[in-house]
């Protein structure tokens, strides 16, 4: 999932990690430069992007400088560990909205749970737990799309992974499954 498609002009190296820019895909434009997609994905958990109809609506990285991002890179791991301790899971999505597709003959209706991935990542076909109040329900992710509501999903919106800092729709198709706004979808319970 790309936040900003910008080509680095002054240098072919990322000012944060000094790595080569692989391509313009995933690079993030800052106030005073551009960072590579690898660095952008790492700090994105602290600076989540907001999308509307697959268009970038708000990107807090654009207000940051290269120096600020270099400083924040040292805080990413402790920040993620704090979130993991808070939630008790390796991957967390908070459900903001839910849409139910049309039921087809001999098939359950698809349920589209839309929201931001707080930490970790979700992959297509992952076994997840949906926490609804005090009830926990196991489910399998059928499909993932890049953050557009059900009514606006297009052919090119599907993806196989949902990363932290990005809004996505996790799609389920399971009999009796109940998901509501405010629920939490988690994966990988931390033990001990």
Question: In a few lines, what is going on in this structure?
Answer:
The chain is an alpha+beta fold and 192 residues long. The protein has helices at 37-43, 66-73, 76-87, and strands at residues 28-29, 34-35, 50-52, 55-58, 89-94, 97-100, 111-119, 121-123, 127-132, 135-140, 143-145, 158-159, 161-163, 167-172, 184-189.
Topology (elements, then pairings):
Elements: E1 28-29, E2 34-35, H1 37-43, E3 50-52, E4 55-58, H2 66-73, H3 76-87, E5 89-94, E6 97-100, E7 111-119, E8 121-123, E9 127-132, E10 135-140, E11 143-145, E12 158-159, E13 161-163, E14 167-172, E15 184-189
Antiparallel strand pairs: 1-2, 3-4, 5-7, 5-15, 6-7, 7-14, 8-13, 9-10, 9-15, 11-12, 11-14
Walk me through what this model shows.
14% of the residues lie in helices and 34% in strands. It has helices at residues 37-43, 66-73, 76-87, and strands spanning 28-29, 34-35, 50-52, 55-58, 89-94, 97-100, 111-119, 121-123, 127-132, 135-140, 143-145, 158-159, 161-163, 167-172, 184-189. Strands 5, 6, 7, 9, 10, 11, 12, 14 and 15 form a 9-stranded antiparallel sheet that branches. The two termini are 33 Å apart. It is built from 3 helices and 15 strands. The longest helix has 12 residues, at 76-87. The chain folds into 2 domains: 1-74, no CATH class; 89-189, Elongation Factor Tu (Ef-tu), domain 3 (Beta Barrel). It is globular. With 192 residues, the chain is an alpha+beta fold.
